[in-house]
Amino acid sequence: MRYIIILNIILLCLTNNVLYAQKTDTIVHTNGNVLLGEIKKMDNGIITFKMDGMGTIKFQVDKVNTFSSDKNFQIVMRHGLQYYGRIDTSGINRKVKLILLNGEELLSVGEIVEMYPIKKNFWLRLSGVFSLGFNLSKGSGIANLTSSGKLSHRNRKSFAEINWSDNTTFQNDTLSSNKTDGSLTFQRLLKKQWYLGFNMEGSSNSELGYDFRLLGGVSIINYLVQDYHNNFYVSVGTNGNREWTDSDTDPTNSLEGLLGFNYHYFKYTDPEINITTYLNTYPSFTTSGKWRVNYYIDAKVEIISNFQIGINFYYSFDNKPVNVDASKTDYGITTTLSYSFH
Fold first, then answer.
1. N- or C-end of the chain: fewer Cβ atoms within 10 A?
2. For the stretch 167-202, what's the b/e string if a residue is b when 16 or more beta carbons lie within 10 angstroms of its beta carbon?
3. Using an 8 Å Cβ cutoff, are 216 and 202 in contact?
């Protein structure tokens, strides 16, 4: 009798573990197939779905007819509205039923831009890219080495990102020019597609004649386009600027405006394509007639899982550089090999 009781206890424990391990989320494909597993997240129109036996798979949300989950999600819609609740099937093609504390909402699957489990969102919301590029010309003796990286984290009502890059040119084993940039940006949701932005940047550029520039400011941001493949936003703000030309000269202080245009394009189907570009203009409020422009584009194509090849191009212009002997323009183009996660 004692052994029967012990055996029943063991079987009960095993049964509980199996039930606990079961994936309770359901996705109904547009072809009618029903998938059982765990919805990890939805981002850029891609659902990350974990299934027993098959591991983690990804597929486009336009292949989804409906889905359900008993977990609570943060859901971001294409027009900027955000919801928090559980998802259930609706019985209507390409629709889901959102279970709220005070009622229900019927949502179109095609209008959902992002979806994250509320209690498991830190690492799922963290993403990054690391790139390395190198060009060499034997005839001219010129070599160019670039490195860059990005870490991004999106929370319920905020977005934070760290960027860094270095572009160094050598000629005949001698350093001829260097451009280094690092920035921290933070966006806080105000209402729908409107955000309040904060930024802090540090940079150096030998071609434009400054040893170090420290920039910090605030801006208002509006996402004009936010869907599966495209993100486009405009930012308007102001920045404080402090520049050093060398250790023997006092730094120069100025107040600048900001008008920025940022665009991101993403395509998941083979070949996976990722393009990021921005144009920022900085008219000076304290130096009459002075203005600066920064333009950047980074285009990548995936060659194998999480690895991409691409090119990046930058252009900088300052009509009144702090060093009168410096060039007014700087630009460069480099091929890169990148690794990304999440």
1. N
2. bbbbeeeeeebebbbebbbebebeeebebebebebe
3. no
Q: Are residues 114 and 262 in the same domain?
A: no
pLDDT of 162 higher than 90: yes
178 and 208 in contact (C-beta within 8 Å)? no
| pTM, rounded to two decimals | 0.76
Query: What does the CA dihedral 56, 60, 66, 69 come to, rounded to 10 degrees?
Result: 30
Mention every residue, 6+ apart, whose C-beta is less than 8 A from residue 74.
82, 83, 84, 114, 115, 116, 118, 121, 156
- 172 against 48, higher pLDDT: 48
**Euclidean distance between CA atoms 215 and 224, whole angstroms:** 26
Q: 18-22, 73-77, 239-243, 261-265: which range is least confident on average? A: 18-22
How far is 335 from 129, CA to CA, in rounded Å? Answer: 15
Residue 130 and residue 116 share a domain:
no
How many domains are contained in the chain? Answer: 2
Alpha-carbon gap, residue 185 to 200, rounded angstroms: 6
The helix (run of H) or strand (run of E) holding residue 25 is: strand 25-29
- Looking at the fold, whether 182 and 56 belong to one and the same domain comes out as no
Q: Which whole number is the average pLDDT over 123-135?
A: 83
Structure tokens of 297? 């584009």
Averaged confidence pLDDT in the chain: 85
Q: Are residues 212 and 254 in the same domain?
A: yes
Which of 206, 149, 153 shows the shortest CA–CA distance to 177?
A: 206
Residue partners of 288: CB distance under 8 A and separation at least 6: none
